[in-house]
Design a protein that fits this description.
Pfam families: DXP_redisom_C, DXP_reductoisom, DXPR_C. NADPH binds at residues 15-18, 41, 133, 135, 222. Keywords: Isomerase, Isoprene biosynthesis, Magnesium, Manganese, Metal-binding, NADP, Oxidoreductase. With 405 residues, the protein is α/β, with parallel strands linked by helices. It folds into 3 domains: 7-157, Rossmann fold (3-Layer(aba) Sandwich); 160-281 and 303-320, no CATH class; 335-405, Rna Polymerase Sigma Factor, Chain: A. It is 45% helix and 15% strand. The chain is built from 17 helices and 12 strands. The chain has helices at 17-27, 44-54, 64-74, 91-99, 116-124, 134-151, 160-168, 202-206, 210-214, 223-231, 233-245, 284-292, 306-309, 324-334, 338-354, 363-373, 382-403; strands at residues 7-12, 33-39, 58-61, 86-89, 105-108, 128-131, 154-157, 182-189, 253-257, 263-269, 274-278, 315-316. The strands form 2 sheets. Strands 4-3-2-1-5-6-7 form a 7-stranded parallel β-sheet, sandwiched between helices. The protein has a 5-stranded mixed β-sheet with strand order 11-10-8-9-12, with helices on one face. Strand 6 (128-131), helix 6 (134-151) and strand 7 form a beta-alpha-beta unit. Helix 2 (44-54) runs parallel beside helix 3 (64-74) and helix 11 (233-245) packs parallel to helix 14 (324-334). The radius of gyration is 21 Å and the shape is globular. The protein starts with 6 loop residues before the first strand and ends with a helix. Bound molecules: nicotinamide-adenine-dinucleotide and magnesium ion. Nicotinamide-adenine-dinucleotide is lined by residues 13-19, 40-41, 109-111, 114, 132-135, 159, 219, 221-222, 224-225, 283.
């Protein structure tokens, strides 16, 4: 269907790294986009500032207390439609702003499985869904893709690798790689801050601090995904994400460490052609692509200067130093509830690491222990995913007592 004059957008996770980049792109094109709703878990001052700039109709925050503060601060302020700004809190409010009839597109940029229900609500309402929240797809891939088909939602990947692959494939690619002549997907990885084995031997990896793990060489991102990039769990989650988005198997995907992050991923065709999407590492490119698709708009991104880049390097990923990638392969190969279990355990492990409660090199040990304790089950609906997610979190917290400092 043709897009309306102005796309009305809900941004889930508006105060985050992806949320801010999305608002940056939207602000460049006021004739094309307006903001229906914004959400954040906490940080009501930051959310208030966004409301004053973007004048959404609805704003959603995590707690009743924060909602009260926001309501006070926004009294007398009108939304872009001229109505008062509605302030809400809690999970149902997130679902409501994702499926509201006046919404055209939903940017799913909450971090973690917490984004699953609102993102799925957007899919079930047949929205144009801009998917940054990879954990939602990892947890509930089959349900999610079935719902996309059933409700005619448009799913546009924001993760730079998947956005790159999407750009390198023909428009009709939901039936897998064989019908479109693709042999392999090449998923690039920066390798994270600890990719250099001589600089980061095992004893140094054990003593990594949160600040070191969050200092990503090429991308500026939220803290959870930064730690995932450092353990390579991010690439593991992306491997699973790619299997669902492009209807393929883990064996169809090759992980390629490419330290410059200039190629964002590739598709290798049966005639020998390899198509790559390139650009500076700036998330505004995939965000602008998905916002405007199938058109193209200015994203505010510096043009790529190949003479400055000078060279592109490629090497294999080291799954022994970074076992999370292997765990993700095992999780998607076994299928069922295992990816959800792995993801939940990883969320607990990363949060504990960021709070100084778990050593960096024990993150994969904790994840593997939880996976071993929760064998995969068949997914026959959302219930089993939510209950396995909860059980895995409980087991992971218990494991902290064993593996913690
Ligand atoms: P972030 O931590 O910067 O922001 C997360 C946002 O989600 C914030 O607005 C926060 O308030 C909200 N949030 C957190 N927990 C919540 C909860 N329990 N309920 C409701 N809202 C909650 O994260 P980010 O880096 O912007 O990443 C967001 C998602 O996008 C992640 O799934 C990440 O993997 C993915 N992603 C990010 C990047 C990047 O460059 N930052 C790249 C690719 C994919
Ligand atoms: Mg990515």
């Amino acid at each position: 269907a043709p897009l309306p004059a102005r796309q009305r957008i809900t941004i889930l996770g508006a105060t985050g790294s992806i949320g801010s980049s999305t608002l940056d792109v939207i602000t460049r094109h006021p004739e094309r986009y307006c903001v229906h709703a914004l959400s954040a878990a906490s940080r009501h001052e930051a959310l208030l500032a966004l409301c004053l700039t973007h004048r959404p109709q609805v704003v959603v925050i995590g707690s009743a207390g924060a909602a009260e503060v926001l309501r006070e601060a926004l009294s007398g302020i009108e939304s872009y439609t001229g109505a008062p700004i509605e302030v809400r809190y809690g999970e149902q409010a997130l679902v409501d702003i994702s499926e509201a009839p006046e919404v055209d597109s939903v940017m799913a940029a909450i971090v973690g499985a917490a984004g699953l229900l609102p993102t799925l609500a957007a899919v079930r309402a047949g929205k144009r869904v801009l998917l940054a929240n990879k954990e939602a797809l990892v947890c509930a891939g089959q349900l999610f893709m079935d719902a996309v088909k059933q409700h005619g939602a448009t799913l546009l990947p924001i993760d730079s690798e998947h956005n790159a692959i999407f750009q390198c494939l023909p428009a009709q690619h939901r039936e897998g790689l064989a019908p479109i002549g693709v042999e392999k997907l090449l998923l690039t990885a920066s390798g994270g801050p600890f990719r250099d084995e001589t600089e980061w031997p095992p004893e140094r990896l054990a003593a990594v601090t949160p600040a070191q793990a969050c200092a990503h060489p090429n991308w500026s991102m939220g803290r959870k995904i930064s730690v995932d990039s450092a353990t390579l769990m991010n690439k593991g989650l992306e491997l699973i994400e790619a299997c669902w988005l492009f209807a393929c198997r883990p064996d169809d995907i090759q992980v390629v460490v490419h330290p410059q992050s200039v190629i964002h991923s590739m598709a290798a065709y049966s005639d020998g052609s390899v198509l790559a999407q390139m650009g500076n590492p700036d998330m505004r490119t995939p965000i602008a692509y998905a916002l405007a698709w199938p058109e193209r708009i200015d994203a505010g991104v510096e043009p790529l200067d190949l003479f400055q880049v000078a060279r592109l390097d490629f090497r294999a990923a080291d799954e022994e130093r970074f076992p999370c990638l292997r765990l993700a392969r095992e999780a998607i190969a076994a299928g069922g509830t295992w990816p959800a279990v792995m993801n939940a355990a990883n969320e607990v492990a990363v949060a504990a690491f960021l709070e100084g409660q778990l050593a960096f090199d024990r993150i994969p040990l904790l994840v593997e222990a939880v996976m071993q304790a929760r064998p995969p089950q068949v997914v026959d609906g959302l219930e089993v995913i939510l209950s396995e997610d909860a059980a895995a979190r409980e087991l992971a917290s218990a494991q902290l007592a064993v593996l913690g400092p």
